[in-house]
Each structure stands twice: as C-alpha cells, then as structure tokens.
Amino acid sequence: MDDFLVSLIGATLRVATPLIFATLGELFCERAGILNLGIEGIMFLGAFAGFTTASLTGSLWLGLIGAIISGMLSGLLLSFFAVRLGVNQHVSGLGLTLLATALSLFLFRVIFKENQNLPSVVPFQQLNLFPNNPILHEIFSQYLLTYIAIAIIPVVWFIIFRTNYGLKIRSVGDNPEATDAAGINVYRLRTSALVIGGGLMAIGGAFLSIAQLGKFTFGIIEGRGWVCIALIIFGNWHPVKVLWGALLFGGVQALQSRLQITGIKLPYELFLALPYIVTIIALTLAGRNASYPAALLKPYKRE
Amino acid sequence: MLAVEMKGINKTFGLVKANQDVHFCLEQGEIHALLGENGAGKTTLMRILYGLYKADDGEIFINGEKVNIASPKEAIAAGIGMVTQHFTLVPTLTVAENIVLGYTDGMLISQKEIEKSVEAASQKYGIDVNPAAMVKDLSVGERQRVEILKALYRNARVLIMDEPTAVLVPQEVDVLFESLLRLVKEGLSVIFISHKLVEVMAVCDRITVLRDGRVTSTVNKADTSQTELAKMMVGRETFGVKSQSTKCSGNAIYELSGITLEGKHGKKILDNVSFCISSGEILGVAGVSGNGQGELTHVITGLICPTSGSIKIEGKEISHLSPGQISDAGVGRTPEDRHEGTIGELTVAENLAIENLKEFQKNGFLDQKRIVESAKEKIKEFQIKASPNDQLRKLSGGNMQKVVLARALARKPKVLIASQPTRGLDVGATEYVRKRLLEEKENGTAILLLSEDLDEVLALSDRIAVIYEGSIRGIVPSAEATPEKIGLLMAGAG
Amino acid sequence: MSKLRIERAAAPLWAKPLIPIVAVLVTFLVTSVLIIIAKANPVSAYYHLLIEPLSTRFSVLEVLVKSTPLILTGIAVTVAFASGYFNIGAEGQLYAGAIAAAWIGSTFVNLPAIVVIPLMMLLGFLAGVIWALIPALLKIKLKVDEVVTTLLMNSIMVYVVSWLLNGVWRNPETGAQQSPEFFEAARYIKLAAKSRLHLGFIVALVVVVIIYILIKKTPLGLKMRASGASKAGAQFAGINVNRTMLVAALISGGIAGLAGVGEIAGIHYHLINELSAGYGYTGIIAATLGGLNPIGVLIAALFIGLIGTGSLNVSMALRVPVYLGDVVQSTLLLVTLAMLLLQNYRIKRI
C-alpha cells in the first residue's frame, strides 16, 4: 500500500506540471483582465515548437526556448486583437486556439513528412534526488521542469503581490479606468501580461513533448487547456490555491490510471470528467461572489 | 500671489459655448466656491485646469508663472489635484496600494513600507485613513478621503473638489469640511464646485458664480447671502412668493407616495418622494443633476424597485412592475438616455413597434406591412426625417428623440414620463418636442417632466416639484414659481 | 500640415460589402507564405483548394456533405450569438444529439422509417436542448459566464461518449469502440446515387429557412435581435431579456444536436469517438464569417466545406499538408474579426 501511495504522489507531481505552468500563464492574463481562450492552442503550439526545435537543433534546452518564443508571439497576436482592437475576447481567443493548432499540425507535416514512425527525441531525464531512500526516491525523481514548476509558484506570487508591476496588473484587471487615470499605459500593460502568460503556457505544452513523452502526438494536449481555465476559477485567481487545484486534478488523473491496473472497476471517464463537473459546481456556488477580476472580458477604450 | 489665475478662458463644444471669457482667481489658503446650475460651465473650467480639456483661448498661471497643462499628469506635476464624483480607485487593492499606484519608482513593493509611508502622509495632512484596508470595504466617505489623500500625497497645493458632498451622508460632510478647513490653514488652496448654497456659505471664503458659461460675479462670503447667490445663479427678476401646493387635487391620476430608495451603506438615494399629477397637467421636476432625478426615473419606469412606497395609476399599484407591464398599464416613458433606451441596430419601424408587439402580429408572425405603415404614420405625425427602414443609430439626435417620443405616445397613454426630453437637441427639435408635450397635455395626458433645463421646466409646467438630495423640497404652482424661489429650493435652502 | 486621424464613426457604405472580399484576399496572402514554406506554388494550391472541388459531380456533392454539419452548427451558434448568448458548447450539444440518435437508430428495429427518422430528429434536438440547459440557467440565474460553462460541458461530453463506447456500447465481438449499427430504416436516405450526400443536407437547408424566418419575421426573432444588440434598450422596451436569451440558448443547443443526428444517421450509422472534427467550433467560424445572418452563414459553411474538401486535393496533388484547410479557416476568422471591427472606424483628414 505504501508503494501505491508513494508512486501516486510521484505521478501526481508529474501530471500536474503542465497544468501548473499553463494555469500560471492564464493567471497573468486574467489578472490583467483578459480571458485567454487561446490557451489550448498555445499549449499545443508550445509542444510542437519545443519538440521541433529540439529535434532540429539536437538541444532540448533550445527546444524549450523555441517553445517559449512561440508562446510569447501567440500572446502578442492575441493582444493585437483583444487589447489593441478590442475584439470580443471569446471569439478571438478561440480563433487563436484554432489557428495555433492548425499551424502546428501543418508545419509538423511539412517538416517531418508523413513518417510511419513518429519522430522522437531523447527527452529530458528525470533527476533522482534521493537515490538511496526508497520512499523519497519515488517522489523526488522528477523532471527538472517539475521542480521548476513548483519553485515558480512563489515567484509568481511574489511578482503579483509584491512588485510594482504586479500592483499595476491587479489594478488594470480590476479597474482599467483608474489605472489609466494614474498615468499607466493600459494597452502596454495588458500586452505584457499576455506575452508572459503565453510563454508560460507554451512551457506547459513543451513539457509534454520534450520531457514526458519525447514525441509530439496530435492528441498531446487533449483539453488540458480548458482544465486550466477551470483551475483558475477553482483557485480563485490566486497562485498558491492554483497549485492545490493542479495537484488535486493531477492526483485524480494519476489515481485513475493506477486504479485501472489494480482492477478496481470505477469508470475511469468519471475521474477524467470530475475536474470539469466540480468546476461547474464551484461556479454555481461562487455565483455572484466569485473574485473575478472585475474588468475581465471588458475591452478598454479610452473615450 | 495668486495660487491659480485663469484669464480669458473660452471653450466651445460644437455649438455650445461652455466657457466664455472666464476669469477666475484662487488666492493662497482660501476655499473658493464655483457656484452655478447644470451646464453653467463649472466642471468644464476645472477640467481645463486639470488638463483633461484644452481651452480654445486663454491663459493659466500657477503661482504667477504661465503654464500649459496638456494632461492630468502635467497638472499633478504643477501641484493641482482633483477629486471628482467618480472615484478612480481600484476596489480590490488596499488603500496604500491605491495611493502609491503609478507614483512609485521601485520595482518591489513592500506592504509595510507603503503602509508606513501612507500612514505618515495621513498624519501629516490629518486625513484619517486605514492604509491596510481594502477599498471595496470602505464607505463612500472613507473612499473620498483616500482620493483626497492621494492628491495630497502627490504634493498637490491646489485641490479641486467637484460636487464633493453629492455622495456623502451629513456626518461625513462635517468631517470633510473640518478637514478642508484645517488643510487650508496649513497652506492648501481649495476650489469647491457646488450648487448647494448652504454648504457654500458654510465653508467657503469667496464665491464665483457662473451662469451660461460666463462669470456673473465673484464675491466674498461676508458680503452676500443665500438669496443673493440664488439670484446670481438663476439670474432673473424676482418677486415675492405666495404659496406652496403639495396637496393632490381631486382628479389625480398618477400618484407617488413615500417612494424611498436606499443604496449602499444605507444612504437614502430617494427619500419619501410623494407627489401626484392630474389629467391634463404637467408636473415638472427641477433639480441640479445628481440629486436623484436619474434614480427617480429608473424607479418610475420599472428598472429598479423602490425600497418602500407606492406608485399608483388610477388607483392601480404599479411600483414593482416590469417596464413592459408599466407600459401596458398606460404609462408612456421616454428614456433618460436615448442611446441606452433604444436599439440602434434595429430600424426606425422596429424600434417604434417593439414596445407593443402584440399589436403587430398576424398568425404568430410579424406583420411587416403594418409595422412599416404604422411607422410611416408616426414619421409623418412627428415630422421625423427618416424612412421606416433606416437604422435608428443613423438618425440625428433630434430625430431619434422624436422616435422615442412617438413610441412613448403610441399607445395613447394616460400618463407620460418625459425624461430629459430635449437633452442634446438643437433649437428646432427642442421647440418641436416642447410643443408636442403641451399638445399632449391639452389632450388630457398627465405628464411628469424631468429635466435639468430649468427654463424648460419653468416654461412647460403647471406645477413644479424641486428635488434636492433625493427628497422633494417643495411643490410650487408655476404662477407662483419665481426663479429665485426655485433656485433656492434647488440649492437646498429656503 | 494635414494629418490623418482615425475616429470612431460608421465606415462609408461602400466599404461594408467589401469586408468579406478583403478578408478572403488578406487570408490568402498570409497563407501563401505557408504554402511557399511547404515548397508549393500558391496559385496552384488555391486552384486545388477552391476550384478543383467544383470540377466533378462527386466532388461537388462531397462539398455539400462536408458542409452539412457546419451549416447546422453555424446556425446554432448564430441564433445564440445574435441574442447575446455566447454558446461555445455546440460541440458537446452535437454529440448529445448523436447519442440520442445512436440509441434510437439501433434499438427500435421494428419501426418504419417514416416514424423512426422524425423520432430521431426530435429526440436528437431535445438531447441538444438538455445539454445546453445547465449553462443557460447558470447564466440567467447566477450570471455565470456561459463561455466557460459551455466549454466545460464540451469536455464532459467527450468523457460521456468515451464511457458509453467503452462500456455499454462496446461491440462485444470485435471490441471496437462503436455503438451498434443502425438498422436500415433509421438511416438517412441518400440524396444522390454514388455519393455520400444524405437527407441531413435537406434538413440543414430547412433549418436555415426556418431560422431565417424566425429571426426576421417573428416577434421572438425581433426580441432576440433586440436583446443581442442592446440589453438596456431591450429592457427599456419591456422585453424580458433573460427569458429571450434562455430560449435562444436552448434552440441553439437543439440545432447543434440535429447536426449530430445527421452525422450518425447520414454517414457513420453508429456512434464513434471521432464523430465530429470540431464542427462545433468551426460553426463559430461560419457564424462569424456569415455576419450572424442565416443566409450568410449558409454561404460561409459551404465555403468552409469547400476548403475542407479542397485541402484533401491539395495534399494529394501538391504534397501540401491537408491541414492547410484548417489554417485558412482560422486565419480567415481572425482577419474577418479584425475587419468587422475596423468597419467602426473611419480615417479622416484634419
């Protein structure tokens, strides 16, 4: 039983990693007042860009950088539509997801042709921190990116709540008029949030292709982006609560695959659907009291 | 040396001369009131000073030096701060965070440090705030104090306050005045925009009265009285007042009793409003904007439910009905803001028909022919310069207002609520609308006229109710309504 | 010195019909870059993409087949968006309808076609309505953003389908993940010999006509358009905006359900996981391109169907990845969005 639990914890951390990165990315966007529905597409693009760059250059780290750049450019693109032009955020975000996905698929085929075997790279290796201790060994054999994901959470917290930049972000997401009145450039601020957010989301996607799998498959993201949208609401737009949500969902996913092996007969789809169901319930309960950044979804135009 | 001197300021918006050759000086260490009715030009003048508008002509001097203020940022740099009715605070940030927003250089923000800094400023200026509190938990008065401290924190030497007491309860007003008087002793100069005579006389040293964009006069408080000021504000001949009539005459058809609307923190936005209107009578509601007319309109038209009180038409209770039901009950309504009260993307004909779709159906489908024909009739009757299938938002303001009026009158209502009926219209359209209202009155419709244009209220009404701070201060038959009397009521005195 | 200033005002009238044309041109310019990267000739690619599909009978009919679900999801999204309700859940509602159809089509073996087919359509419609109900109620009663909730419902539906196909509907002999085969009477009749064109296409056209009439010629339609155009104005005019949006949301869900029925009863004859290639989301593209006008949406859906068919041609003829079609569609969406907004601006010389 101990083995089960220990391996579960280890798996949870691993599964939660892409969720943590992507959710933190979305957090930046939403805190600044933009609902970024391009998240699913940006993760997919990040997975593709990361893999392809790594494959072509032979360096995993360059792959990661390639992914980050793709995410930042995506953020910039969305910013042009949603911030500069003030287009409906829902539709432009979805358009970005569709475009990023289509672009990734297209370019993947162009670069790698139609291979019988999917191309692969040697992925990042896990780092065994405690090789001798049987329990800690299982939990702390994680990818470097996983450790980074955990470490980044207090960093994000610090940026949002303890820096001038974070103050401005919180301000523009809640009351862009007041922020404008304080002499701050609302457009530039929101664009920066989208660019940072995009970069983080792309890392989340790249983790899957160049760390966990070593390949880029078309189903690699499979709705994780939408889970992140749910996680933010679940975590009330707070970086630390988001961590608990990600671990919870990661745990549920890790649990269901382990339960299958042990032969316990619960429909595993129920587990997979659980995050979404719970989020809808959370939304119902929160209702009008949700700590939405008040200006979320409203484009800002100075009269 | 004068803290602020504005010379020869001219500002025109389209056809409206908001400021004409205005001279205004503010001495060091005084509280100077800018007094006037709606549209007198007070806010325009101050927005020019604060860099939100650019004057067409004129010069501004700060402490004797000529300046060119092109934006609020430059105004702040010149030592001018402004506190308006619309607070520019971020509710989910703390007081301290709001105050330092955009005014701090470092990359890092330590809560303790900014709170200490704000606490120090609070002590220095004697403005009591709690730096760690979240703005959304503060009362209106406390929020205003944060706004004031925000301006002082940026080293404002001149503080412009635009209708500061409009949102405060009486106790908070006392606290505000006490703070202002103290700050002024320490060297701050204050410009106090208001229309409330009692307060102006209580706290200001000098008063400049604006009327129709020009300065009527600038006087010392000691040399004047409320009556004098009222006369200067409204500017017409005066003669004695005879009587006030608040009783409902026998054939009252529309009656408000005790309508009260409570807002946040228990502030009474509408306080025990009662009046009645008879058939073939126009009751005008006069008052400076911000005293509750808007909210009263929303309650009457069914967009908000009153906290207590009743509204009756021919004895039937309608205070909690929806807008559609109120319309069915025989009350025609024109919206306060014709852009919000119409659907710009639909056609003229559709807008005219939409309140009464039951009339325009055939076998469950829209009877397009009837809709268009009916529209053509209304277009002819109201002289609207448009075709039935034009998109409404393409119409001029005047024509849009005629559509709105046509729609309100379409079902031959017993009562018509005319809310700001000529706001923003040119002379021709204004004349038409007023003429039309009088015609309706002759036809026996009871009309409630809510207008910020005092001339209009005086010209059209049979009786005039003056609203001030959410309550009716008096209802005066028009024959006895002198501008002076009305002006005093509107300004809270008398 | 005269300067150019961009101000908010309605664009000159001659500009409006140009919008779709300019959008298409800009899109093609942008995607040409990708075609060149794929080492192909853009002009030749566009020929295969747009012209070639129209050159044979079979191909034209395939375009119609591909467009069928898009017409329905496009209309579904249009009804909702036009009323101010952002239904992103057409994908899930489509599957809901498919599930209902799959059940009927494989269970009631003894019923004649004349009974079964309308029954399937009715229950498919209702299934879509039910799947749309929760987000709609949450929006109206609790002001919860419907975009997030409808997206979540889409994700949940993926698992519902998977659960059904893995359990109750798993083929016991072959282990294949598909529901039992439809019996003959339940299958949509074919409209043309030697092609896949099925009754669903007629259904789609009928829906276009019905919705067109609903929106333009009924009181409900006027109320919907009013609510979508100006919530405040509609309220002032006495319209119950909440109720109108609810009705629109449910009709939208039902129509998306019909799209699912069509894909099963017309093409696959059993439920599979990959029934929809994102038709619910592509419907949003069709609705936006069509300017939320049913006729426009029909044309847009046909256009997207054309691109979908053409991208197979391009990939076979020029070895350009078949995903070119997806890239063109999504680029066209973004460009159209930008143009729609730019039509609210005018460049003035001062």
Layout of strands and helices, then pairs:
The complex is a heterotrimer of chains A (303), B (494) and C (350).
Chain A: H1 2-31, H2 39-57, H3 60-85, H4 89-112, E1 126-128, H5 134-139, E2 141-143, H6 144-162, H7 164-174, H8 176-181, H9 186-213, H10 224-234, H11 239-262, H12 268-286
Antiparallel strand pairs in A: 1-2
Helix pairs in contact in A: 1-6, 1-9, 1-10, 1-11, 2-3, 2-4, 2-9, 2-10, 3-4, 3-9, 6-7, 10-11, 10-12, 11-12
Chain B: E1 2-13, E2 16-27, E3 31-35, H1 42-49, E4 57-62, E5 65-67, H2 72-77, E6 80-83, H3 95-100, H4 111-125, H5 140-153, E7 158-162, H6 170-185, E8 189-194, H7 197-203, E9 206-211, E10 214-220, H8 226-234, E11 252-262, E12 268-278, E13 282-286, H9 293-300, E14 308-313, E15 316-317, H10 323-328, E16 331-333, H11 348-353, E17 361-362, E18 365-366, H12 368-381, H13 397-409, E19 415-419, H14 427-442, E20 446-450, H15 454-460, E21 463-468, E22 471-477, H16 483-490
Helix pairs in contact in B: 8-16, 13-14
Chain C: E1 4-8, H1 18-37, H2 42-51, H3 57-82, H4 90-107, H5 113-142, H6 146-166, H7 199-217, H8 219-229, H9 231-236, H10 241-268, H11 279-289, H12 294-318, H13 324-342, E2 345-349
Antiparallel strand pairs in C: 1-2
Largest beta sheet of chain C, briefly? 2 strands, antiparallel
Question: Over all CA atoms, what is the radius of gyration of chain C?
Answer: 22 Å
How would the global form of chain C be characterised?
globular
- Beta-strand percent range of chain C: under 5%
Count helical runs of chain A: 12
CATH class of chain C: Mainly Alpha
Count the beta strands of chain C: 2
Q: Can you tell me the CATH architecture of chain C?
A: Orthogonal Bundle
**Overall geometric form of chain A:** globular
CATH class of chain A: Mainly Alpha
Write a structural description.
The complex is a heterotrimer of chains A (303), B (494) and C (350). With 303 residues, chain A is mainly alpha-helical. Chain A has a single domain (3-125, 145-289), classed as Orthogonal Bundle (ABC transporter involved in vitamin B12 uptake, BtuC), CATH 1.10.3470. Helix content of chain A is 74%, strand content 2%. In chain A, helix 2 (39-57) crosses helix 9 (186-213). In chain B, 32% of the residues lie in helices and 27% in strands. In chain B, a hairpin with a 2-residue loop joins strand 14 and strand 15. Chain B starts with a strand and ends with a helix. Chain C has a two-stranded antiparallel ribbon with strand order 1-2. The longest helix of chain C has 30 residues, at 113-142. Chains in contact: A-B, A-C, B-C. Chains A and C meet through helix 4, helix 10 and helix 12 of A and helix 5, helix 6, helix 11 and helix 13 of C.
